[in-house]
Amino acid sequence: MISYLLNKFKRKPQDNVFRVPAGWQVYAVGDIHGRADLLKKLHSLILEKSKAAPKKKKLVVYLGDYLDRGAHVRETIDELLSDPLPGFRYKHLMGNHEQFLLKFLDDPSIIRIWKDLGGDATLMSYGVDVSGTAFFDGQDEEIRRQLLNSMPRGHIEFIKNLEPFFRFGDYLFIHAGIRPGKALEDQKPEDIHWIRDDFLSSKQDHGVRIIHGHTITERVEEFPNRIGIDTGAFFTGVLSCAVLEDDQASIIHT
Fold it and tell me: What residues have CB less than 8 Å from 93, skipping those under 6 apart?
């Protein structure tokens, strides 16, 4: 499917206009980090905006980082699984925080690193007791067991099945970015989920315009080759969303 999209919507290098396929309205949602309240508010804003184009097909792409830092991780995943935008199609991408949760389930000894990334918020959201010295007294296996017992199976499957990226029209949706100069099929997971400086500083034409999160900025950043939409929702209260329609791009936020 990805290779089909790459071939069908290849942009001409001399064309500086970026488009989504005709007849579509596309929404891209930035890093949520357990702010279920903001996600619900944004879903309401998306539904309201979509009413202006009743005949168009609707797609929402979530760029990852649903977990950690914010207090309501469980409610965030519940919201994403609840078909919150009736009639829309969904794409859910993996962020570095979801990747790290999966690493923890394979190797609980990394729990201290996960805590520094905000993983304690995820554990507490699922009712796992991490009070006192739990992170430092060899209880990593026990915490893993508690999490697996309290986390709904549907939530675990949701995280395991997240996609690394999504190409649609002249846009590539991805969590962190890409390694400039490398083909999409040659990108490494650590770059897709974690890259910052080399990608953010690049003025290279990637052949697509990249919509990404991962790196927090005070406001949405728009450049010819990328749009960054992580506005630090977990502490700013601002969850941002790029809206793409034909050759136009706009922003809505909480």
Answer: 61, 62, 63, 64, 162, 163, 164, 165, 166, 173, 174, 175
